[in-house]
Amino acid sequence: MVTPNEPQEARLDDDLALLTETLEEVLKSSGDPADQKYIELKTKAEQALHDVKARVSQASDSYYYRAKNAVYRADDYVHEKPWQGIGIGATAGLVIGLLLARR
Fold first, then answer.
1. Rounded distance, CA 73 to CA 81, Å?
2. Whole-model pTM?
3. Three-state DSSP class for 88?
4. At what angle do helices 36-80 and 82-101 cross, to 10 degrees?
């Protein structure tokens, strides 16, 4: 079940994983190999599955690259301005502590 607070990307990843698993099971299931329509559908489904896996892989690589760049920028910022980095970290810790203490 999808919760309203769940990120859209996580739901999309789950949906794609479910679709991939289902399609792989359908492709493995038996059909009449002599039936031309079955052969065409299976070929089309295999190509679609391959294309989706490739696009998901590229998107995943893109997200990883952007996250890695953000980490490097944050690291550079903290090295250039260590006291401001300490202040930001302390403020974030204080806010999180206050939020957790309210529960």
1. 12
2. 0.45
3. helix
4. 120
Q: Whats the size of the chain, residue-wise?
A: 103
Q: How confident is the model at residue 97 (pLDDT cuts 50, 70, 90)?
A: very high
**Cα–Cα distances in Å, from 5 out to 1, 65, 92, 93?**
12, 25, 22, 23
Cβ contacts of 77 within 8 Å, gap of 6 or more:
84, 85
Burial of 52 (0-12, 13-18, 19+ CB in 10 A): middle
Mean pLDDT is lowest, of 5-9, 49-53, 62-66, for 5-9
Pick from 82, 18, 99: nearest CA to 52? 18
Burial 88-101 (b: 16+ CB within 10 A, else e): eeeeeeeeeeeeee
